[in-house]
Amino acid sequence: MEWHSLMKPASILIVLVLVVAVAGGVAAQETPLNVVATTTLVADVAAQIGGDLVVVSSLLPPDTDTHAYQFTPQDVARVSQADLLLVVGAGYETFLGRLLESAGEIPSVVVSEGVAILPVHAEDDETTAGEPLGVLGQGLVCEGEEDEAAHDGVEHHDHAHGVCDPHVWMDPANVMIWAENIAAAFAAVDPINADVYRANAVAYIAELEALDAELRALVETLPRERRMLVTNHVALNYFAHAYDFDIVATVLPGVSTGAELSPQALIELVELLRAQSVPVIFAEVTANLQLAQLAAQEAGVTLVADLYTEALSDAGGPAATYIDFMRHNTRTIVEALGE
Ligand SMILES: [Zn+2]
């Protein structure tokens, strides 16, 4: 195999280049902070705050369903080399415990610290998305899917013990908190540049305020009685809460796309869609559409499957930045419900 013998000198060269790069970086002390964010959404916000002073990468690539993610040995290596790991928190990254066990003790920051967390079971509530459960980082524990202990002996539909909904970025007000937390985290690691991070956060928060006003104006064009959301999984609680929509139902019963649906539950869902005259089921681009398609077909409603919920699109797509992500989703929802 001729290519094999050619590959060997090349890999040795790559290793040498890496060794030189690492040694040079340590000596110069001018290396930008190496920041790894779990998702593209966090990475985009971190890049806005860090500017040229940080190199941010996302552990998960664009167009990926975080709920279905399984890390690779390469991912472990990337995280173990990071100066800082940024995570959403609220039980979103169910893989995190095992990842950090393999990668070692990496300084980690929960960017959602201080966000008022909503419960999962919005569809059980009379109001849109219920009262906030608590504030992340102040005594609230959001158990991950694998943490079964918290459910023992607990009534499953008891809201006081409900699992947290981690999709906090669906409200720009929460991403303003992310920006503040990220600026503080960068300043703690790199205090000389604290003022730059602070100023970048202030500028980005102003952009998010403008985005929020734009989305509000767009939603205002939709009569209140048409603001009915049925989504594939529980992902739009925070959007509904911020922009005054009702979550009528979700196809899958939980915050994860890995949830299952019984035939009986599917029948009940179809009956609910018919009874409430719901016009559209929304699903995320990364969804397995089988169940949503079946429900839409049975209930005679439209399926709109191009929402971005867990990740940005790639650079050429309609949701390449957080701001475009929110614009795309809100336009898609308002257009589909306005028809
Ligand atoms: Zn999700």
Instruction: Name the bound molecules.
Output: zinc ion
Helix content: 40-55%
Helix and strand pattern = HEHEHEHEEEHHEHEHEHEH
Q: What number of domains?
A: 2
Number of strands: 10
How many angstroms does the end-to-end distance come to? 61 Å
CATH topology of the largest domain: Rossmann fold
Q: Tell me the name of the CATH class of the largest domain.
A: Alpha Beta
Can you tell me the CATH architecture of the largest domain? 3-Layer(aba) Sandwich
* Biggest β-sheet description: 4 strands, parallel
The percent range for strand residues is 5-15%
What do we call the CATH homologous superfamily of the largest domain?
Nitrogenase molybdenum iron protein domain
Spatial order of strands in the largest sheet: 2-1-3-4
Whole-angstrom Rg: 22 Å
Q: Flag low-confidence runs.
A: 1-29, 123-128, 144-161
- Round the mean pLDDT to the nearest integer and report it: 85
Q: Strand pairing plus helix content: what structural class?
A: alpha/beta
Estimate the global geometry from the Cα principal axes.
globular
What is the helix tally?
10
Explain this structure:
This protein folds into two domains: 32-205, Nitrogenase molybdenum iron protein domain (Rossmann fold, 3-Layer(aba) Sandwich); 223-338, Rossmann fold (3-Layer(aba) Sandwich), CATH 3.40.50.1980. It is 43% helix and 12% strand. It contains ten helices and ten strands. It has helices spanning 2-28, 40-50, 73-80, 96-103, 172-189, 194-220, 237-243, 263-275, 290-299, 322-338, and strands at 33-37, 54-58, 84-87, 108-110, 116-117, 134-135, 228-231, 246-250, 280-284, 302-307. Helix 7 (237-243) links the parallel strand 7 (228-231) and strand 8 (246-250). Zinc ion (ZN) is lined by residues 67, 167, 233, 235, 309-310.
